[in-house]
Amino acid sequence: MWTRQAVSQLIEQRFGIHYSVHQVGRYLRKWGFTVQKPGRKAFEQCPQEVQNWLEYEYPIIKRQAKAENAEIQWCDEMGVRSDAASARCFSPKGQTPIVLGPGKRFGCNMISSISNRGTLRFMVFTERFITEVMIRFLKRLLKQMKKKVFLVVDGHPVHRSAAVKKFVAEKKDQIRLFHLPGYSPELNPDEMLNQDVKTNAVRRKPAATQTGMVRAIRSYLHSRQRQPDLVKRYFHAPTVRYAAA
User: Fold this and answer.
1) Could you tell me which of 170, 227, 185, 230 has the C-alpha nearest to residue 77?
2) What are φ and ψ of residue 196, in 5° steps?
3) Using an 8 Å Cβ cutoff, are 214 and 108 in contact?
4) What DSSP string runs through 5-58?
5) Phi/psi at 189 (5° precision)
6) What does the angle CA 234 – CA 240 – CA 242 come to, to the nearest 5 degrees?
7) DSSP readout, 135-199?
8) Residue 40 Cα distances to 21, 161, 184, 199, angstroms
9) Parts of the chain belonging to CATH 3.30.420.10
10) Quick one: 76 exposed, middle or buried, by C-beta within 10 A (0-12, 13-18, 19+)?
11) For residue 126, which of 105, 145, 102, 108 has the smallest C-alpha distance?
12) What's the confidence (pLDDT) of residue 198?
């Protein structure tokens, strides 16, 4: 990680010139560098698989979807907990802000799919994410969609289960399943919806009960369904812009 200390050490190793961390900080700001929270990428991710997905696999999926008049949907699931970290806010220097929250721990889960056309489908549930839940979501999705669905998912074991494969095979005229490269959540636009929900529907307005949490998330997602232009903006993030067209 490129900290001020690391940059200072590099300058001294390369050029024999010693700068304090404060001097390095001033230079970095002058050169347009700012302090940022780094993103995370798994060691297990294969760069070749990611490149192959971006250059070959996804373009083929797009052409197939166009040929079959299908809509590409990006699907993901996440868990939400009552003790999730609160959103950042302003406070006088040296005074840590206090946010009221429930003393009991509880949570719920959510599965959703979005398209670059601004459509959003979701399901909020309190049980574990298992095969039966995935199939229930797929049934709801197909009932709501008027055209064939090309559903892009990650490598979760549920997505690769025999029961899900069987369901998809039986509905092959309505749906096809495609898998993202392993350990590559940044390639899924639906991750942007997940972050939106966590930030604006969970952390900023902590719920006192599990029922309240479920209600708040559903209400927020219903409002997003009525804002297709905002759903389309999820595809503007640099790592998923390839899926915007």
Assistant:
1) 185
2) -60, -45
3) yes
4) HHHHHHHHHHH-----HHHHHHHHHHTT----PPP---TT--HHHHHHIIIIIH
5) -60, -25
6) 120
7) HHHHHHHHHH-SS-EEEEE---TTTT-HHHHHHHHHTTTTEEEEEPPTT-GGG-THHHHHHHHII
8) 25, 27, 10, 18
9) 47-84+102-243
10) buried
11) 108
12) 94
The string over 31-61, giving b where at least 16 C-beta atoms fall within 10 Å of a residue's C-beta and e elsewhere, is eeeeeeeeeeeeeeeeeeebeebeeebbeeb
Contact 234, 114 (CB under 8 A): yes
Residue at 9: amino acid letter? Q
Residue type, 75: C
The amino acid at 138: L
The count of C-alpha atoms lying within 13 angstroms of the C-alpha of 136, restricted to the half-sphere facing its C-beta, is: 13
pLDDT for res 40: 78
Question: How many whole angstroms separate alpha carbon 83 and alpha carbon 76?
Answer: 22
Place of tokens 């995370």: 40
State both tokens at 144.
Answer: 């709501």
- Chunked into runs of 10 residues, the chain (245 residues) has average pLDDT values of 92 95 94 86 92 98 98 98 74 79 89 98 98 98 96 97 98 98 97 95 89 96 97 97 96
Residue type, 84: A
Q: What local confidence, expressed as pLDDT, does residue 85 receive? A: 66
For the sheet with 175-179, list strands across it: 120-125, 107-114, 71-81, 149-153, 175-179
Per CATH, domain 47-84+102-243 is 3.30.420.310: no
pLDDT at 241: 98
CA proximity to 159, closest of 186, 137, 184: 137
